[in-house]
Amino acid sequence: xxxxxxxxxxxxxxxxxxxxxxxxxxxxxxxxxxxxxxxxxxxxxxxxxxxxxxxxxxxxxxxxxxxxxxxxxxxxxxxxxxxxxxxxxxxxxxxxxxxxxxxxxxxxxxxxxxxxxxxxxxxxxxxxxxxxxxxxxxxxxxxxxxxxxxxxxxxxxxxxxxxxxxxxxxxxxxxxxxxxxxxxxxxxxxxxxxxxxxxxxxxxxxxxxxxxxxxxxxxxxxxxxxxxxxxxxxxxxxxxxxxxxxxxxxxxxxxxxxxxxxxxxxxxxxxxxxxxxxxxxxxxxxxxxxxxxxxxxxxxxxxxxxxxxxxxxxxxxxxxxxxxxxxxxxxxxxxxxxxxxxxxxxxxxxxxxxxxxxxxxxxxxxxxxxxxxxx
Length: 375
Known about the structure:
Blueprint: H1 6-12, H2 14-27, H3 34-47, E1 51-55, H4 58-68, E2 75-80, H5 85-93, E3 97-101, H6 112-125, E4 129-136, H7 145-155, E5 158-162, E6 170-171, E7 174-175, E8 182-186, E9 200-204, H8 207-217, H9 239-250, H10 252-270, E10 283-284, E11 290-293, H11 297-309, H12 339-347, E12 348-351, H13 359-374
Parallel strand pairs: 2-3, 2-4, 4-5, 5-8
Antiparallel strand pairs: 1-9, 6-7, 6-10, 8-9, 11-12
């Protein structure tokens, strides 16, 4: 059994994907080919924004957003404490300071209440200037942008949506990557919309920021790539990956619906055994992961081992909150607390999740957990 079965997905759509790859090989435009332009247009239309700029990976996408806003020294960037390292990693790259924020227990996403407390703390200290909130659509579910936007508006902060795990999810029918002043995503293979290598994208309605990001992606170029008006980077999505993504975008909504069917079955069968994911009213998840919470670290270890003995993969996202990562040990704030993030790191567990899981496989997984709980 696969944790996220990309092989089964490929075999199901092999003919279309192979034809798209072959087209690139025959045209031999491997960088900046027509499929890249087509993909950016289709992605912008899908999300419902004016601009989509593709880049080399999701980490670069986050960095490009901060560079477009001229974030730098003495700027505070608020980041959920429970997320992948890259979300916060880009902040010191621009010489800004990450300020970690605790999460909601039910959704694993950044807590609006904890966010406001963190902003007030930084304002009281007067050593940093609050500038940006990075809200992550963790495990596929959008962050609570209605509440987060109230706070960013109240304090005059920019909102950056990290939609790497949430692409294709919705709030009241509106797609993720359309809620931030700038939003980003990743096309890492295991993401809801994944390519066969690395890739990322930036989304915005702001013309000035979009033009600056386009320049930054190609060594700070102006209209001509040999005229450089700023220090930039080399961050481009190659044509081959764009061609693959064009075909996978066509089936994305269908696959997300399949994942929702899998999630509903999991939730129904696991009810009363473990704490299952909570999807807020009006939201849909793209189910990058299906993550449950167990009673303790020890119980989680026992279940992981039992699943492994029966050929079932599982994963822990994440073993350590960001404020306890060695790389961030210099960013310590005595008045801020991260009790929920710390608890989730000890007890959460992600089960196999993809649109091609059979009902028999789901029931097999659930039965193993149920038998363990009975004992």
